[in-house]
Specification:
heterodimer; A: about 500 residues; alpha+beta; three-stranded antiparallel β-sheet; 16 helices; B: about 500 residues; alpha/beta; eleven-stranded mixed β-sheet
Chain lengths: ~500, ~500
Amino acid sequence: MTAVTDEVLSFDEAMEKYDPVLGFEVHVELNTKTKMFSSAPNAFGDVPNTNVTPVDLGLPGVLPVVNGVAVESAIKIGLALNCKIAEKCYFARKNYFYPDTPKNFQTSQFEDPIAYDGHIDIELADGTVFRVEIERAHMEEDAGKLTHMGGSTGRIQGAEFSLVDYNRAGVPLIEIVTKPIEGAGSRAPELAKAYVAAIREIVKNLGVSDARMERGNVRCDANVSLRPHDRETFGTRTETKNVNSLRSVEHAVRYEIQRHAAVLDSGTPIIQETRHWHEDTRSTTSGRPKSDADDYRYFPEPDLVPVVTNDAWIEKLRAELPEPPAERRKRLQADWGYSDAEFRDVVNAGVMSSIEDTIAAGVSAAVARKWWMGEISRRAKLADVEPAELGVTPELIVELNALIESGKINDKLSRDVLDGVLAGEGTPAEVVEKRGLAVVSDDGPLLEAIDGALAAQPDVADKIRGGKIQAVGAIVGGVMKATRGQADAGRVRELILQRLGVEG
Amino acid sequence: MTDLIHLTADALAQKLASKEVSAVEATQAYLDRIGAVDGAINAFLHVNTDEALLVAAEVDKARTDGDTLHPLAGVPIAVKDLIVTKGQPTTAGSKILEGWQSPYDATVVRKLRAAKMPILGKTNLDEFAMGSSTEHSAYGPTRNPWDLDRIPGGSGGGSAAAVAAFEAPLALGTDTGGSIRQPGAVTGTVGVKPTYGGVSRYGAIAMASSLDQIGPVSRTVLDSALLHEVIGGHDPHDSTSLTDPVGALVEAARMGQVDGMRIGVIKELQGEGYQAGVLTRFHESLELLRSAGAEIVEVSCPNFRYALGAYYLIMPSEASSNLAKYDGVRFGLRVVPDGAPTIERVMGATRAAGFGHEVKRRIILGTYALSAGYYDAYYGSAQKVRTLIQRDFAAAFEQADVLISPTAPTTAFKLGEKLDDPLAMYLNDVATIPANMAGVPGLSLPGGLADEDGLPVGIQLLAPARQDARLYRVGAVLESMLEETWGGPLLAQAPAIPGIAGGK
């Protein structure tokens, strides 16, 4: 770990003086069965150098063949990002020597990406919508993975030797490039996180990627530059590579803004370069200098023919697209009648789909929300799992709710019933039976308990008689205590008021 | 049975089919011939004795068992060492691949194996097929059987010389700018560059992907057609491979017909720079075709004059990228310099030691031509010239069914004569390059011996893309008329090869 720490300005101060401009290159690994240009399996975590064919190793004489499923995935991503789809596009070779790149060139797209000129609306936590323009989305292949051995840090500096695993070499990638994002101001870090989250959600929703950031399925390079508020031309940018968690994206953008501000304040120019993000120190360090003059000697890939699309194909794929996540959320919130705050909580708790399924199974939106945001979320937190992983099915909730509505059990008892069901004691009805959990609905024992409670708190009884009906809660509490919770609180309240001759 | 080796492939196939000769006898006869003369010729880099005899024995057994066999089963063949073969080394004529064995077979090799054609071995070539004399082989030059002090052409000098010296009845070559046809011309043999995409390139070590094509080398036009039908056809491993069926090439060669055909003489491919003896034989061939009923017309292809220049931009550009994979990381030569070498230094040292001068020259040329700031002027302009050449062909084929020219401007020159003058060397391909630039098929056949030096002259026929059959139809007629004037095959006039004990 480098000991050099760059000067940074406070974020607020940076924002007072400068306007950040962002840009993102997000690489999405597709989950096709085979690789972009070979028949080797596209799989994560296998024994190194087993998912390779002569093509993936770049052996003499091999030729690439385009994976048609990957092309369809690329088109779907393009459509989901509101892009135009090229009628004809080409692959190109990006030439550079590096041992993780078996041919010493990457087969990519250069002048003619398959998708271009799109946009995506990003909703921030408070509901603000920010439109990000998409420059292009193009197809390419992933590189292999290098492991540097013998050094203390796992980095190439100080390593004795390096191992290379070509299992990942040739895995299909879609690189999504934004246009410069201006005007985000102090919300730039938040927008950065939300943008990458949205891309991840979209590709996951499309089913074209596993979208697991911890596995590198979605990788982000974040470009940041600053300019004084009164200037239109962009400042010099840096590109922070491989920022591979949502939190890191936010932190890296924030850090680079603060670092740029400090450099600019000191009167020195920003060096155009790549930066490496370090999660441990939450800072970046200088990578290699990068300039627009980086010469990859791109030229059209002569081993591949152009990819030609047509309207019928594109429209067929468009028709197969799932509902976009943002639109789905809008629709569900309207259908369910949740407030913005309620709905945001539901989304953040990760129970939106569970609620949707539960409503479909036959309960109201309010009941579904009560269960998923209440009892189930509470249990999930205790068990440190996702709510959906607890094993509570929509059908179970419907049954529990029916028992409550019929007055057989109350909310409190329903938790015990849930315990029993999850412990494998049978259906909710069976658990009620076995555990003897039915509420006391016979008015006789209730009236007995009510009389006891009124006698125990005569002053409260007087207050109620005097019109202070809100005081009835204390008597209800006494009755519930006496019946060990097995009474229907609503009925108890009614009976108390009747007993005291007060209109409720 | 020395006569066996003088049989054409077609005649040998018939004798095998009638069991007059066994495949083992035929294969052994060729192996003996290789043993006797290859010390002088150096056509073979590897002789595949055991496997060839094994395959021959299988053929003989199958024939005894009454199995259905391919018509060429048991007819031996030599393979240019640019084409990968399992179980034998593949060097591409380079030190950088010395000792390397491919784990897979080229598609054409799979087809040879499926036809049960014994593979005699791998033939010499200019390193990575870069040259017109086979002098750029890292394993010593091949010598011309007509005169051991002369070059056998290149890059496929090994395949042409092997066939001319009766070391093989058939061979495979590759042709990027004339590497099949020009060696054919200077050794008195037949060579065909099929339509681009007509034969799979999978497993042919790439020099320039948009120009390379595998094709047959033989002693007669019919023999090339027989081999062409074996190796041709669509291959899903090669995206640039045509989906058309191979076509009735053998039938075209057997029928042979020029009556009423329009044969176009390319104005720009004669005259200045062409040896007098070459032009004399060329004009005799035109007269023969006219006497057979063909209409000889003159066509103009004004942009052919730019073909050589454009070729020497496109070919090195693609080659510079195709040859990037030879870096010592995954296969082949690895040179580790002293000290604590970085990967960059290992790659550099490997390539410095492993590549010869001509290869380095072309990598440097290509790298330069693709560089930022030069791309448009060099690679871009060259691609425009390519389009113009294609238009010239299109216009010429409106006036003629087949085009004709000398294959090479001169007969075989002396070893070493042009080694220090790359431009003089490159000019050997001036007549063959246009076909590669346009993807059209070309055939070279012997046109006789030049008066001034008694060395073979080649006649080139060119047809529109996918019309390879026309080459065989016209070529067969011209061949039979010429042989009538010579009183037999031209190779019968070749001097005896001085017996140098050798073989490998």
